Amino acid sequence: MLFQDKVVLVTGGATGIGRAASLEFARQGAAVVVADLNETAGAETADEICTGGSRGLFVRTDVADARGVEQMVDSCVAEFGQLDCAINNAGVELEWAPPLADADEAQFDKIIAVNLKGVWLCLRQEIRQMLKQGSGVIVNTASIAALAAAPKMSSYAASKHGVIGLTKTAAVEYAEAGIRINAVCPGVIDTDMTRRAIAKGGEGTEKYLPGIHPMGRIGTPNEVVAAMMWLCSDAASFTTGAILPVEGGRLAR
Ligand SMILES: NC(=O)c1ccc[n+]([C@@H]2O[C@H](COP(=O)([O-])OP(=O)(O)OC[C@H]3O[C@@H](n4cnc5c(N)ncnc54)[C@H](O)[C@@H]3O)[C@@H](O)[C@H]2O)c1
Q1: Helix axes 118-133 and 154-174, enclosed angle (nearest 10)
Q2: Cα within 13 Å of Cα(93), Cβ side
Q3: Which residues have C-beta atoms less than 6 Å from ligand 1?
């Protein structure tokens, strides 16, 4: 019970990596706020947490909306009294855009609004609460597209590179305040997002994706969650501003 009596907030907690994180933090004793746009799946995740005997709360949230993000943190504190760990994980995907010269402005704006501004808004509100408490830990979900080129995904790559900048800067700004802030960079993970990308990518994508990792397979949500949990735990007490790849060796190639 690594997170007994802790309160954990997970954005994008309805499905995929966020859902797996919500369930695992709850299993480890935490009260969990599941924040997501998807009401049906978000409520299901929170229900599953409660059915398992832990405390769970779904809060419908659009992370790209400042007022909504304020309400998300307010709801967390109103229900559970504090905010110990935040996982800023909500995101929208690559859509196999054309190369940059032919890319679409509206798509760029949408991806930046959720993946980058959304993380900025969440960090700002979570840090305000953690400053009141004098402690806290935050993990942002970036991507291998945060650390290297991502052809046909220029907007997604820009948004995730931005998350690295936010992570490092906030980590330094709040290190003395007792708030640790890190990021994970998953490779291709078996989630709805990946399944949608495979469906849109056409023939060959499903066969191609495992091979981008030297391990020759895609990862599981729980393999990312394990890294998030370590970063949130006291075992990582001297780790802040770190960018942790979880990608089967992809970037070592
Ligand atoms: N799946 C992968 O291969 C992969 C790889 C690297 C990084 N990531 C990142 O991991 C994170 C989780 O993705 P996933 O693979 O679990 O995908 P997913 O689609 O299963 O989950 C994303 C969740 O975010 C929610 N969401 C989207 N926009 C939102 C908004 N504006 N406000 C609140 N919630 C919103 C969705 O409803 C969904 O529940 C994302 O940030 C994604 O970019 C995924």
Answers
A1: 20
A2: 16
A3: 11-12, 14-18, 36-38, 61-64, 89-92, 114, 118, 141, 143, 186, 188-189, 191-194
Nearest CA to ligand 1 atom 31: 62
Residue from 9, 40, 69, 193 to probe ligand 1 pocket by mutation (most atoms less than 8 Å from CB): 193
CA-CA-CA-CA dihedral for 118, 88, 85, 6, to nearest 10? 110
The domain defined by 7-189+220-246 folds into Rossmann fold (3.40.50)
What would the pLDDT profile of 27-79 be if each residue is shown by its tens digit? 999 999 999 999 999 999 999 999 999 999 999 999 999 999 999 999 999 99
pTM: predicted TM-score of the whole model, two decimal places: 0.98
Instruction: Decide: 37 and 9 in contact? Cβ < 8 Å.
Output: no
CA of 176 to the centre of ligand 1 (A): 31
All structural domains of the chain with their residue ranges: 7-189+220-246
